[in-house]
């Protein structure tokens, strides 16, 4: 076994600290001001940016970096709040679409400034343009795909959605 050298150790400890602490820092203002988890916000936000504000569940899980089971639980809670409706995909009834309602779009509009303030103050304002480009490059290289999608290039199969 080869131990980490000083540079590797600094890279690893910095990354793991960021991975463990950043989600909570980004979620805290969303919870306090809007009663949303970070994952709920990401789901709603991705739907708000999608054509006709709807996506297949598998695609939405992939975009939000979550498993289908986690997404299903969150979508159920959002349905109960009136923010999302689920329906069969008219193009292929084997798939399920999640669609953002007007009430869901309203909560995204309210929460987006809170989220953007946190992203800027916690992450982006500390980095110049060169660092932001480097971060994007490293994040892309280290991108981890949820297990549900690692073997499924189509981002889900019918009815597991």
From TrEMBL:
GO biological process: one example: response to stress
PROSITE patterns cross-referenced by the UniProt entry: HTH_MARR_2
Highest taxon listed in the record's lineage: Bacteria
MF-aspect GO terms: DNA-binding transcription factor activity
Spans through the membrane: none
One matching Pfam family: MarR_2
Coiled coil, from the record: none
Gene3D superfamilies: Winged helix-like DNA-binding domain superfamily/Winged helix DNA-binding domain (1.10.10.10)
Record-annotated HTH marR-type domain positions: 1-144
The protein's name: MarR family transcriptional regulator
